[in-house]
Amino acid sequence: MSSAPVTTWSLEQTSPADLLPAAAPDGDVRIVRAEVPSPEFSRFLYASVGGDIRWTDRLGWTYARWREYLERPGVETWVAYDHGTPAGYVELEAQDEGAVEIVYFGLIPAFRGRRIGGHLLAYGTARAWDLAERWPARTPTKRVWLHTCSKDGEFAMANYQRRGFKLFDTKVELEPDAATPGPWPGAYPA
Questions:
Q1: Where are the alpha helices (DSSP H) in the chain?
Q2: Residues 95-110: pLDDT tens digits?
Q3: Tell me, what's the pLDDT at 188?
Q4: What domain range is 82 assigned to?
Q5: Which residues, in sequence order, are bridge partners of residue 175?
Q6: Which of 35, 54, 68, 157 has the fewest Cβ atoms nearer than 10 Å?
């Protein structure tokens, strides 16, 4: 199996004042928290958003592993809906010492390029900053961070920077080439 270099950039905000807003997209776009842990729904979002950009690390997770992860205090999934159809999501995970990671963020391919991504990222980041209000046992948020890589969409880094995220680390590693999994086998061309 061949490998290819993948660059991973880590970005952060260290104050709620760092968050820069995005214009709301046209149409009926709503963002709602998925409050009931649902491995089926979370796996659907993960595979549908990441299928064409080679998200593969969770494809082998069992139902029990998904449930265990989703039921952890401070893990939240916020879903963007366009006219009632899931368009994308942002997944937050509270960590130690007031850090919140945006673990996953993205749009289903059919919804990209419609200004939903910036709006969803800004909204999700705001929810990272106020996460402790919903989870009183958690330390108030002092830092929101994420990582993106050269396999992600071509506009990902610019969107993060437009929302006020600042680069704090860059790594290049060789990763095995993987076929594009799609939300089901063969959904997207390789």
A1: 39-50, 63-70, 116-129, 131-134, 156-162
A2: 999 999 999 999 999 9
A3: 64
A4: 3-176
A5: 4
A6: 35
